[in-house]
Amino acid sequence: MSAMTKQRPLHSAPPDGGWGWMIVIGCFLVTVCTRAVTRCISIFFVEFQIYFGQDYSRTAWIHSIVDCATMFCAPLGSYVSNHVSCQMGIILGGLLASTGLILSSFATSLEYLYLTLGVLTGLGFALCYSPAIAMVGKYFHKRKALAYGIAMSGSGIGTFILAPVVQLLIEQFSWRGALLILGGFVANLCVCGALMRPIYPKEHNPKEPRESNIPSSKCSPLSQDCTHKSLCYCSQKEYSFLLKPNFIILAISFLFLAYGCSPPFVYLVPYALSVGVSHQQAAFLMSILGVIDIVGNITFGWLTDRRFLKKHRYACYLIAVAMDGLSCLFLPLLNCFQLLVPFSVTFGYFDGAYVALIPVVTGDVVGTENLSSALGVVFFLHAVPYLVSPPISGLLVDTTGNYTAAFLLSGFSMIFCAVLLAVSKLIKKIKKRKLPLTVPVTDTKQEIRSNGDVSCPATEEFNHKEV
Predict the structure, then answer these.
(1) Which CATH class is domain 14-200+248-429?
(2) DSSP letters along 134-188, please?
(3) Which pLDDT value is given to residue 143?
(4) 101 or 214: which carries more pLDDT confidence?
C-alpha cells in the first residue's frame, strides 16, 4: 500500500463543514461557468439570426445542442469522476469548454457553431457539472439542502452578472469578441477542478482486509488492477438504483420538466424584443431572473433544511415546479417591460427553488453512495428534451407568428411533471395504508419499510428496541 493511500483523510460521516465549504465554492463557480454561460447564449440569439440570416427554428438549435451535449454526456462526467478523479474530469472539461467558445468566435456558418459552441462546449460542461454537484453531497448531510442552495445559486448570480456584461461585450466587440472573452472566462473551470479534494469514508478504509471471494462494492480507479468480474460487479452496484420504482417515476418526470424549463430561457429576450422592449431592458430581464434565482436557491435550501420542512422536501419540490409552469402560462399576456419584470421574479425564484432540490430529492431516492451516478443519469435524461424543445418552440413561433403556443406548451409540460409526481406519491400512501391489512398475522414480526417493501422477518427473540 502506498504512503499516499495510507495518509488519506478518512471520515465516518460527511463532515458538514471544513473543506466542504471550499467544495461548495468550487461547485458555485462551476455552475457560474456552465449553466449561467449556457443561459447567456440566448443573448446571442438575435445576433446569430441577423448575421447568418436564418429563422428561429434553425438558430435555436445552437442553444439546444449545447444543453443536450451537457446533459447527454453527464454519465461520462460521472464515470470519469468515479474511475479517474473529480479533479481531472473538471480540469479536462474546462479546457474543452474554453476551446469550444474560442473556436466559436471564428464561426462562418450555423453548422460551424453547432459543432464548436454546441458539441465541444457542451461536452466540456458535462465533464464539470455533475461531478461538482455530487461532491457537495459527499461533504454534507445535515446541511445538504443549504449547501446545494448556495452551490446552485451560481447559476442565478452568474446570469445576473453575465447577462448585461455579455450584452455590453456584444455592443463593444461584436458577438465574435464576446465569445472570445467568454472562452477565457470559462477557462476558470480548471481552477474549480483543483478545489475538488476527494473524501474517503471509513467503511472503505484500505487498511481493512477484505474477503478475497467477495467483490468490492466500490469501484477502483483505473490506475489499479481490476478484473473483468469486479468491473461488472462495480457497474451493477453503481446503477442498481435504475430498477427502483421511485427512481423510474422521478426519471419520467424529469423528461417533462426538462422540456418545459428550457424555452423560457431561450425565448424570453427575443419575446421581449418582439413586444417593443429595448435591448438593454431585455438583457436586464435576464439579470432580474438570475438574481431572483439566487434567492430561490438559498432561501429554499435553507427552509427545507429546517426540521418542520425537512420531511416535506418532496412536496416543496412539486410546488416549485408547478409554480414555474403557471408562470409560463401567463407569459403570453405580458406585453411590456413593467409586466415582464414580475414574470422574471416569479419564474426565477421557483426555478432556483426546484433546481436546488433536484440533487436533494435524487439523493433521498438513491442514497448518497450512488448520487454521482444517479445525477449523471438524471442529467442524461434532460438531454433529449433540451435538444428538441427550443427548435419545437421556434417552429411554433415560425408557424403561428407569435410565442403563445410555445410558452403554453412549456407551462403545461412543467405542470404535468408536478402532477405526475403528486399522483405517484398519493398512490404510494394509499398502498402503505392498505398494506398492513393484507399482511397475515403470524408468530413472526415484519418490518414495513418507508418505500412499501417488506423486509426480512424478525423473530420474537428480538426485543422492541432492537427491532
Answers:
(1) mainly alpha
(2) HHHHHH-STTHHHHHHHHHHHHHHHHHHHHHHHHHHHHHHHHHHHHHHHHHHHTT
(3) 75
(4) 101
